[in-house]
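Example A, followed by Example B.
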Amino acid sequence: MSTNSSVDHCKTPTNATYEILSWVMVGQFTLGLPLNLSVLYIFIFRFKFWKNKSIFLFNIVVADFLLVACLPAKAYHYQNHLRRSESNLECKAMLFMLFLNRGASIAFLITLSLDRYFNVVHLGRRNFVKILKKTPQISIIIWLLLLPLTIPTMVKTFECCNSHGRKVETSYHDVTDTFREVVFFSQIIIPFIILVFCTVRIVNRLRKKTVGEKTKLRRAVCVVMSVVVVFTICFLPCAIARAVLLSVRLNDWQEAENIAVQVYDSLMVLSYMDCLLDPLVYCFCNSGFKDAYVSTFCPTFLQKKLNTDFGLGTTTNTNTNTNTTSRTITLPMIEK
């Protein structure tokens, strides 16, 4: 374990890299704040999520707000060539919120994927996820269960909010740091395995179905694939970079660690993109939310195109009146 205390690991290894990352976070905040505010407006005032069994989706929006709230402070520290706040309280509070956001986002995204899995692969059987969706208290329980997994980030003042692999005073602190790393990896790897399993089973089910039954299955595939995209872009890369960083740090390779730290911090900034990608999941999960959002915020000439792109073969009836002499004939038209 590294015992080199002469190196200030809270300073940025390369100032230019972190200045660029700070501007990336400014862009994420600039886009993420109005986007999530508009989504929140739709869920509460137009879509009425509590009546449309979309409580889990609403909880993802709340988790994204926790993330968006942290971005200005993170960008400020990077601009000042610091990987963390000089205030230990602020440092721990921000890491607590980031851990809580990540855990909540993953928990509710996986729950949505499991719901689609049971609706498609085990159709006709009792779907316990659908029962949970009708109970708002379940969301509160999920948040409460996430707290014990997030509290270790606040147990001790740790260097740069991450002391694992550094010199520690007691074995208790080493166990705390190790537990935090186990939580970090398990909350990404285990859900990703579940997600891949659900995706494979749903796709196999789609191949076996007849043409008339494929519309619902295509929607289910789009839901789980959108969650796969979020995981692939936001969560998996930073987990891999984290594993490399810990390996380098434990071997006390200081020069390699400077590079690994920059790669890890860059991929962590990339992981904040989930606050911009999650609205795509909402659109695929519930066409009612998509219709409400498009009709509220999109101009008229885009509404038809977006409805067609996300509709996946939905059928709407449009009346076309044809006058022949004194008789009116109404023809149903199918929108492709």
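Example B, a separate protein, is given below in the same form.
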Amino acid sequence: MRKLILGILGVLLIVGAIFLGNYIASSKKKTRPVPEKVVKTVFTDTIENKTVKIVIPANGNLVAKRRVELYAEVQGVFRSTGKLFRPGQEYSQGQTLISIDASEYYASVQSAKSNLYNTIAAIMPDLRLDFPEVFDKWQIYLNSFDMDKTTPKLPEMTSEKENYFITGRGIVSSYYNVKNLEQRLSKYRIRAPFSGILTEALVTEGSLVRNGQKLGEYIDNSVYEMEVSLGKSYATLLKVGESVELNNIENTMSYLGKVTRVNGSIDATTQTIKAFVEVKGKDLKEGMFLEAKLNAKEERNAIEVGRGLLLDNNQIYVVRDSLLDIIDVKPVHFSDTKAVIKGVPNGTIILAKPIPGAYAGMKVKAFQNKENSSKSTSSN
């Protein structure tokens, strides 16, 4: 009996161990959760076609519109004018830029003027006797003759006899000889042709200036020009007089210029056309680098989108019933960050920002701004 009881207990222990093992094994099994389908939230725009201004970006350096390179046409010692001949020195129109010592040459001019005066004075008695009708005008000419001023123009000769008489005495040739000397004497003093600033000085006071030597450069610092190169497709679109917005590199200062000239020929090497933009401003300096935005033309029934939204096959994503779809579009202009396209019907909802991994048929959810949830946005 005892053996029977022990056998039954052994069987029960074995069965219990089996059930306990199965229970422990079954408790370690975890059910794999069903992955939840993620719906991406996207930014969208509702399209409204309108007229888009095509703006062409360009850049260049400012150059003074009026510039004078100063050269010596005579020889002598550079004398002080009261202002230091140094870069950055400003002058008003008519002020002396450079004065070259002309004392020796001035003496020869005065000698020639004196000879002319004496020659005319010597014929006055003959004029009184032979040509009394012209005596008065020559007497008035002599009275107005000032050795310290420019030689006045000879009186007009009204008859052939007077002309032969005056010319025969060598007065006309002496007069033009004096005027030639006076003209050369004026080259010893160079005056500012306009108000501006000296940008280069190659001589200093006391230097010996030689004929043909470059002395410096002088510019008008109130008006500048910027040369820009544009694609030949815009040759017929740019017009003289159009306004141009200009900005510096830091985009902290903006200026308003205008197109003053457009080159009539296209560069055969680069296939570009050059345009010149005039701009004024107190803060402008020659050589300053500026970026220009030229209004080339206006494209009707078009929209402007980011270039990242345009697919390689000239297509864009649209949202239809919370699903992405693809439509064909017609690009008409590209800039660095934007693209002007046509062919998108009004009211079409497109992506406002590209999303990674997008594909046609992808389920999306449009982002709703609480403040503007009831407003549709334009692509522009």
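On Example B: Confidence is low (pLDDT under 50) at residues 370-380.
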